[in-house]
Input
Amino acid sequence: MKKLVPLFIFLNCLITTSAWSQEDYFVGQSRFMQKINSSYLGVNSLNRVGVLYNQIRVNSNQNIDNKYFFGTLSFDDKNFSLGMDVNSFRIDQTGYATTLSNFSYIYKLQINNRLFFLPALSFGLGSSSFNNSSLIFEDQLDRATGFINTESIDPSLGQIRTLNYFDLGASFILHNESFLAGISLKHLNRPNISFDQDVDYIKPIQITLNGAYEFNINPYERGLLPNFSFLYTYGSVSYFDTRTYYYLSQELQLGEFSLGISQQASFISEFNLNNLGLLVGLSFENFDFGILYNFPIRSVNQVFSPSVLELYLTFDFSKFRRNRRGLFKRLQTDNYF
Output
C-alpha cells in the first residue's frame, strides 16, 4: 500500500486544484456571485433560475467542462429564501468527474429602511469518480515498442474508488441599493476528499471577501446615454490553503445592454496566473443572456493561465417586479417589501 501513496497524493492534488478552479475560477463572478457567497441567492428576495456553461482550456490537449444550475425561491412573509445550486465538471483527459449539490437557507434582517443583512447556511453533497480506463499505469507501457496496452493489473487500480462527502459552509451579505459587502466560509467541516481510505487529504477552509458598488452615470437623463445607465464595480479576494485569488470587474449597464471587463490574478506557490476578461450581456423582459471570455496572459516565468469561455442564461419569475423590469439596476431592494 505504501507504493500507492504517491499516486493518491498526485490525484488528490490534481483534484483539489481543479475543483477550486471550477468552483470559483470563472469569468462572470459578479453575475453568479452565489458560487462564492450563498447569501447572494437571497438578495432582493428574487425568485430566479439560471444556467452557466464554463469551459477552461488548460492547453491544446486538455479542456475542463463545467455545467452549473441554480434556483432560488423567496418566502417574503417568513423573511427567508431557499436556494439550490448544482456544479458539475469533467476533465476528459483523466476521466475525472465531480458533482457538488448545495442547499442554502438565507435569512433576511432589515437594519433600516434600505439596509439589509443576509446570513446563510449551506449544506453540500459532493461526489467524485475516475474513469479508470482513462488512466495509464506503468504495466501498460511497452518500452520496446512504445505501445500502450489496454489492460492493467496494477493493484492501485482497485483502490481508486468513488468518493462521496458532505460539505458545510456559511456566508453573510450586507447591502443596500448602492453597495454590497460579503464574507463566505466554505468547507467548514474540512471534508476528506481522498480516493483512498488509507490516505487522508483534508480540504482546507476557504475564506472569501467580496464587495460591489453601483452608481447612476446618467442621473439627469442626458440624451447621449440610455435613461437607465449604471456602472457596477465588483471585487473579491479568496484564500485557500497556500493560494490567493483576486478578481475585479467593471460593468456598464446601458439600458438592456451590458458591457464589462474583468481582471483575475492568482498566486499559487511560486508563479502567478493572470487573466483579462470580456463580458457582453443582454436583458430582455424576464431573461438575461451573456457571453464571457478570459484572455490568458503569459506570466514572467513563462507560465500560461488557462483561457475560459462562458455562456449564461437566467430567468426571473418574481411576480411583484414586472413594473420594474426596465430599470436594469443590479443592486435593488424593491422586492423586499
